[in-house]
Amino acid sequence: MITGNREDFSYADALRKARGSISLKELEINKTKVRKAANGSLLIEVMGAGGAEKASKLKDKLIEVLKDEARVTRPVTKGEVRLIGLHDATSTEEIIKAVSGYGNCLIEDIKLGPIHPMRNGLFTVWVQCPLGAAVRIANYGKIGVGWTQVRVDLLNNRPVQCFRCWRFGHLKHSCPSKEDFGGSCFRCGDEGHIARNCGAPPACKICKSDGRAYNHRLGSNLCPAVNISTRIKPILNSTNAPGPSKESAVENKHED
């Protein structure tokens, strides 16, 4: 994804410059698709097998060519799973290695939340990874992490959310609100810290603003501010469920 650093940035000129400087043949890229992203940026999708690795190489080349003119990222369609039953000796490196291996995805595309204790003495962790990888490992039911087998739960798909006003159904680029909660904690709504470091009771800033009960986290199952109707379901009959043929999507958002 190419995002201009200036208001007068020309995406057409940037694409012409990239096409004149980068050989897709040398990168073994046979097919691409160029389109506008929801935030106005230019999205170049690398199609076919090995798309993730090839897109990563193309990103590096685009950074060399465009330099300070634009920000170049390799967004990936994300899915989320929860691993349940980890031992306290399990390291984050072991978890990432297992997810990468079972999910057949790049380590750089995996994000972990904090490892939380459960009542039975074992531990659980939230994992974000490419959607195809999330479905793939969920279809196993259980995967090996270190010396133990852990359960994999595929989580609900998150709705589109603006990270300026925190409301759902649109992105920051097209936000009509004057409110900007970008510096607030996603858990309690106060400023000065992030949700990962928050020990305060949950308080939904949107429900509080709208006059509803707000003793819950924004976007949770208790939150009426969003109606989560789309759910991702694993294909239970196949442990080799294919992921998307293209490797593209959105940037990381909140630090949970």
What are its keywords?
alpha+beta, 3 domains, zinc, Alpha-Beta Plaits, Gag-pol polyprotein
Structure description:
It is a single chain. The chain has about 260 residues and is an alpha+beta fold. It folds into three domains: about 70 residues, no CATH class; about 80 residues, RRM (RNA recognition motif) domain (Alpha-Beta Plaits, 2-Layer Sandwich); about 60 residues, no CATH class. Helix content is about 20%, strand content about 20%. It contains five helices and nine strands, in the order βαββαββαββαββα. The protein has a five-stranded antiparallel sheet, with helices on one face. α3 crosses α4. The radius of gyration is 20 Å and the shape is flat. The two termini are about 25 Å apart.
